[in-house]
Amino acid sequence: MRNFTFHNPTRIIFGEGEIAALDAYIPREARVLITYGGGSIKSNGVLAQVQAALGERTSFEFGGIEPNPTYETLMQAVALAREKNVDFLLAVGGGSVIDGTKFIAAALKFDGEPWDILAKRVEVRDALPFGSVLTLPATGSEMNNGGVISHRAKGDKLPFRSDATYPSFSVLDPTTTYSLPARQISNGVVDAFVHIVEQYLTFPVDAKVQDRFAEGLLITLIEEGPRALAEPTDYAVRANLMWTATLALNGLIGAGVPQDWATHMLGHEITALHGLDHAQTLAVVLPAMLSVRRDQKREKLLQFAERVWNITHGTDDERISAAITATRVFFERMAVGTRLRDYGIGGTSIGVLLAKLEEHGMTALGEHGDVTLEVSRRVYQFAV
Ligand code: NZQ
Ligand code: ZN
């Protein structure tokens, strides 16, 4: 196992009815800006619960944060927060709203052009305090310090992270997810699955606990994902999915182990260029990525085959192929297409995707730093 420091300051408040607990974790005198997306929190009653919990506090609202949140929209929220002299942000929604709120929190304390946080990777040293009410289990943003922001005008989608952008708390009430459309349930399961794989399917470093936690989370997604589609208001299923997605990317399983993230970086370029949902890009890229890099990932692929998929017969190569196929079949069972052509995209844009990867410095990705543009080209070609 590698050396590591693990510190996660986010308080998790989990369970049905817990939105009311907001009252205990936001200062009474706070001036709160509630940030949200396209309006799902109005129709499913979550906003009303949040307002009731805030009680007499002074609060304002900023809606309209889009999936794959944009710099352009978020800077409007920064202006509103300044105008209203807000001192606490409350993100209510999915990963896009929480990521966007992290950017708003950082931009409010940033000296200079906030896009440099993404484009030039300028360090974020301070941010306004914020909490979240999660409504879509997927990204882990509710308990991590990262965010992914898009710049519409430039056609960029880039990540940032900072110790200053952990939520101070997140409320996870599984009943808020009952109103999710099937497509978003599927997206969440696929995204969480790939987060685990990015931290698990690299090479062995004898990190037994991290491996077994990761395998347990993957098996839970395989069991509960299809049930969430079939039984949309089963509380236990939703609760298990919600906590799995959080644990998939809160730093725990990634501590002390090598990490990959090449699938995510290639996926971000597909979203920026073609507008696919984040998880759709992952479902397309991951099977191709594993196929192209099966030699480098050999030992962990064999472990994944046996412990996650119960594949024990056949030669090493046959078991690895079967595990990659099982992964693809699982995504398709979750009704997420695993080929670019499923989304009407052929191979003609691969040149542009590679040029964007190069522009963003994504030329030596993966746990060995050996995912060059040439390897990425093969992955994109394989994904068509
Ligand atoms: O905008 P509203 O009206 O709320 O509707 C949203 C949105 O249309 C809807 N939704 C959310 N909760 C709902 C609901 N609809 C009904 N009932 C509910 N309870 O779902 C749609 C998608 O929401 P979004 O927040 O975009 O989805 P997700 O949570 O999958 O977030 C995706 C974003 O997170 C980034 C992705 O790149 C993408 O931009 N990621 C963030 C990460 C992180 N911070 O660590 C890691 C991930 O790898 C990922 O990159
Ligand atoms: Zn993701």
Tell me the name of the CATH class of the largest domain. Mainly Alpha
Radius of gyration over alpha carbons?
A: 20 Å
For the biggest β-sheet, the strand order reads: 1-8-5-4-2-3
CATH-assigned fold name of the largest domain: Dehydroquinate synthase-like, alpha domain
CATH architecture of the largest domain: Up-down Bundle
> Can you count the beta strands?
8
Bound molecules: 5,6-dihydroxy-NADP, zinc ion
Q: Outline, from the CA principal axes? A: globular
How far apart are the termini? 37 Å
Count of discrete alpha- or pi-helical segments spanning 4 or more residues: 15
Helix content: 40-55%
Alpha-beta classification: alpha/beta
Give your account of this protein's structure.
This protein is α/β, with parallel strands linked by helices and 384 residues long. The protein folds into two domains: 11-176, 3-Layer(aba) Sandwich (Rossmann fold); 182-383, Dehydroquinate synthase-like, alpha domain, CATH 1.20.1090. 47% of the residues lie in helices and 11% in strands. The chain is built from 15 helices and eight strands. A six-stranded parallel β-sheet has the order 1-8-5-4-2-3, sandwiched between helices. Strand 6 (146-151) and strand 7 form a beta hairpin. Helix 11 (278-292) packs antiparallel against helix 13 (316-333), helix 12 crosses helix 13 and helix 14 (350-359) runs antiparallel to helix 15 (373-383). It is globular, with a radius of gyration of 20 Å. The mean pLDDT is 98. Residues 37-41, 44, 67-68, 93-97, 99, 135-136, 138-141, 144, 146-148, 176-177, 179-180, 184, 187-188, 191, 249, 264, 278 line the site of 5,6-dihydroxy-NADP (NZQ).
